[in-house]
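hey can u check if this looks right to u? its 113 residues, i copy pasted from the old doc so theres a chance i mangled smth
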Amino acid sequence: MFSVYCLLLVSKLMKWKALGKEFLVGVNYWPRRKATYWWKEFEESEVREEFKEIRDLNLNLVRIFLLWEDFQPEPRKLNEKALSNLEEVMDTAYRYGLKVIVTLFIGFMSGIN
């Protein structure tokens, strides 16, 4: 019942957009099959499919989480592949009209406190 109420609320809020008023409604996002490990097992097609679903639900915002060790595995080394994957995520969000909040430091989720 709660999810039905949420969808009705989102539908009403999205009507504001037609009046020139934008109300951001979104989700914390990671792929349903990979959870927070998605950067190590990245599949752009999975993100594309799920971002389409998010857009089709009339949501307009996703919040993503960057695990520290996935993007900086060593003190002076960046993971270029992870950065490229992040760029793909941002491009995909743009194509589907989604705004993105990137969470850069997530403490306990990274295993580093």
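The beta strands are 26-29, 61-65, 99-103.
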